[in-house]
Amino acid sequence: MQAASELLDALAQLLDESTPQELLPIIAKVASQVLGADAVVLELPGDGTSDSLRVSFPTSVSISSSAVRRAREEKKAILWNQLFNTETDVSKSILQNKLTSIMVAPFRTPNMDIVSGFLYLQRESRIEPFTEDDSKLFDKFVSVCEKIAYSAYDRQADKESLNVLRGVTRKGSMVYASGAMAKLVSMAQKLISLPVPVIIRGETGTGKEVFARWLHSQGPRADKPFVAINCGAIPENLIESILFGHVKGSFTGAIDTRKGVFEEAEGGTLFLDEIGELPMNMQVKLLRVLQEKHITRVGDNREIPVNVRIISATHVNLEEAVKAKLFREDLYFRIQVMPISIPPLRERAQDSILLAEDFLKRYGAEYGRGKFCLSRAAEKAILGYSWPGNVRELENRIQKALIQADRGIVQPKDLGLDKLQEQAKISPRTLKESREISDRFVIDAALRDATGNLTLAATILGIDRKVLRDIMRRLEMKRDPYRKGYLNKTDAKN
Predict the structure, then answer these.
(1) 293-334 confidence digits (pLDDT tens)
(2) Are 377 and 331 found together in one domain?
(3) For residue range 10-60, what is the model confidence (pLDDT) as tens digits?
(4) 3-state SS string over the chain?
(5) Are both 438 and 398 inside the same structural domain?
(6) Does 460 score more than 50 pLDDT?
(7) Is residue 187 part of a domain?
(8) Is the pLDDT of residue 429 over 90?
(9) 11 and 132 assigned to the same domain
(10) Is the pLDDT reported for residue 281 higher than 60?
(11) Which domain CATH number covers 409?
């Protein structure tokens, strides 16, 4: 009874694996557990369209080629043991490897019409040999596993065909089916081998760094470093040292000489994220480096030549920032040689499901939660949500959902979208109400990004500062709650 229960548990484990690449190693492990083998090998030859596969536990197992050949010829599971076997070649293998017995069965998949793979098990001499009952169980086990493998190969073929029909494309860490992304990637591919500066525009969380890494990985500098920094996250008094490096004793705390990111990225790509937040004095120095192609470390007067490709990114409207004297016009033209604009997730809704599935697979494995899928209701909620935080917000909600979801299925409540769905059912009755909701939403996001700076928020929104103040007055919105330190000051007073 216990053996039957263990076998059922093992088969349930096999049915959980969705792809052949995930399934076949599990088959080998389960065979070893159910049949008490010390070593197991599952080998499947390639068919011209796929690579051969060999799974071995432990990693190095010496097998009997005579036993494998015999099992293939008889097309069934065959048992050899030390005492009763009469086949000389197999007997030699058993004796040389200090075994009591071997079991081998041919293993077929849809890719194999004539030549089949095999599943090979052996027991060492310290334990009892396989019995005839073991051989019969092994034969049935392989027959069931072949059917499960057939289904896995069929599912994979169906998924690949469906992906072709849906236009699903994978480029590194990017997955998409939308026409907007396809058009963007097509244009970007023309830039891959060119040394021209590229600026990636897009809202916060759209995946600008992921796109930059893909550009780097496809170009002639792929084997060189990719170095990324966020210009808006570095204190102003440190940014020159981080960009260009410093020499020992050049300032308090400079206890040794260090390279900057330009030198670290030598020969490769330097990704300057949020370049729109670079202080004005550093914009002048960056412009000079881009023009002269050399840097000078802080506290030094020696010029060091640098050879890097610059990819920058920003969510700020640089054109408005130039008009507002917040960004240098000459630097703007230097980095704006070829702009790439990544559309927000709300404009490519079909990609949101693909990304969610990828995040489920990645974090399900990372968190040890196994395989999860989206319910139809969750898919509908994802498609209906506007994703103000874009891909980053989607990733965050999937991570939380994996912690809360039960029984391998993610529901809208696990994503935190169930209340938003209910709110969406209560539609504004007038155009004025609809406009106010929309205005409040985008202004709230801009003020958060600008930490209450009205000039910067107006630049992000692409409107005049006075217009922003008028709209905020009409909506009764205050800037204080968005300013740095406001909450701390409020708490201190209370």
Answers:
(1) 999 998 888 899 999 999 999 988 999 999 999 999 999 999
(2) no
(3) 566 566 555 677 777 888 888 888 888 888 998 887 655 556 778 888 887
(4) CHHHHHHHHHHHHHHCCCCHHHHHHHHHHHHHHHHCCCEEEEEECCCCCCCCEEEEECCCCCCCHHHHHHHHHHCCCEEEECCCCCCHHHHHHHHHCCEEEEEEEEECCCCCCCCCEEEEEEEECCCCCCCHHHHHHHHHHHHHHHHHHHHHHHHHHHHHHHHHHHCCEEECCEEECCHHHHHHHHHHHCCCCCCCCEEEECCCCCCHHHHHHHHHHHCCCCCCCEEEEEHHHCCCCCHHHHHHCECCCCCCCCCCCECCHHHHCCCCEEEEECHHHCCHHHHHHHHHHHHHCEEECECCCCEEECCCEEEEEECCCHHHHHHCCCCCHHHHHHHCCEEEECCCHHHCHHHHHHHHHHHHHHHHHHCCCCCCEECHHHHHHHHHCCCCCHHHHHHHHHHHHHHHCECCEECHHHHCCHHHHHHHHCCCCCHHHHHHHHHHHHHHHHHHHCCCCHHHHHHHHCCCHHHHHHHHHHHCCCCHHHCCCHHHHHHHHC
(5) no
(6) yes
(7) no
(8) no
(9) yes
(10) yes
(11) 1.10.8.60
* Domain extent at residue 89: 2-163
209 assigned to some structural domain = yes
pLDDT computed for residue 175 by the predictor? 85
- For residues 359 and 453, membership in a common domain is answered with no
Give domain status of residue 357, yes or no.
yes
Single out the residue in 163, 178, 204 at which a domain terminates: 163
| Residue 173 in domain | no
pLDDT tens digit sequence for 166-183: 567 788 788 888 888 888
